[in-house]
Design a protein that fits this description.
Blueprint: E1 2-10, E2 20-31, E3 45-59, E4 70-74, E5 83-88, E6 97-110, E7 115-127, E8 130-135, E9 144-149, E10 151-170, E11 173-191, H1 193-199, E12 215-216, E13 225-226
Antiparallel strand pairs: 1-2, 2-3, 3-6, 4-5, 6-7, 7-10, 8-9, 10-11, 12-13
Length: 234
């Protein structure tokens, strides 16, 4: 079984140069239990299938006015003309945030699907992470950009789900149950140094005991890792 999709989205948040992003995906599935050579096992193994998929999805979390300079006015002093000041800088290089995912899985059914197992292995990489309030130098005339692409992040892991479908039957009474277990690991692959400097503060003795010093954003580590400090006597 083969599936394929191709989706295109356009957003004025990214201006006239990069308004579109394309999201392709493909999926494959092979039901081994449908093969003729599998017939002797079907009384015990009612379903055995392998599947895999790959795809890219794009998203826009930026405001539609991010591509334009914005201004505000305030009353002038002593009857002078109104004062016009910048309230938002034009963002000309913002591109869509894209997530690329790869998935492999196995489906197993036993005893006419009375017991079903679903195993998934996955890896997702998100590029061009969009963040609001990106810090910029004061020389630009502002302190932050409304939005910016700041880095790349990876998530990978596995999940196992086991279902028991009416595995106990007594007259009109039946019992079903489900069990699942999963593990996910997260890693920050890239991050704009300006954002790292803004999110992370250096240790200060006066800040000892504050929860703000326990979390740090570090490249090649899980996002918002918990850090401890070792205090040594003089």
């Amino acid at each position: 079984i083969v599936g394929f999709s191709l989706r295109g989205d356009g957003s004025s948040s990214f201006g006239p140069e990069t308004p579109w992003f394309v999201s392709p995906s493909v999926s494959l599935r092979y039901n081994i239990s449908d093969e003729k050579f599998f017939e002797p096992l079907r009384k015990t193994i009612s379903m055995l299938g392998l599947r895999a998929s790959w795809g890219i999805t794009g998203s826009s979390s930026a405001s539609t006015v991010s591509f334009y300079n914005t201004y505000t006015t305030s009353a002038g002093y002593y009857g002078t003309d109104p004062i016009i000041t910048s309230s938002g800088m034009k963002i000309g290089d913002l591109v869509p945030q894209k997530k690329e995912g790869l998935n492999a899985g196995l489906n197993l059914g036993l005893f006419d699907d009375m017991i079903e197992a679903d195993l998934n292995l996955y890896q997702e990489t998100t590029r061009n992470l969009i963040m609001s309030g990106v810090p910029v130098p004061y020389s630009t005339g502002s302190t932050t950009l409304a939005y910016g692409n700041i880095g790349k992040m990876q998530n990978k892991g596995w999940e196992l789900v086991i279902d028991g479908n009416r595995f106990i039957k007594r007259g009109k009474f039946s019992l079903s149950a489900s069990f699942n277990i999963a593990q996910n690991t997260n890693k920050l692959l890239e991050m704009d140094q300006r954002v790292l400097d803004n999110l992370n503060s250096e240790y200060s003795a006066t800040a000892r005991g504050s929860s703000s010093i326990l979390n740090r954003v570090v490249v090649d580590q899980p996002l918002c890792s918990i850090y401890g400090y070792e205090f040594k006597g003089v």
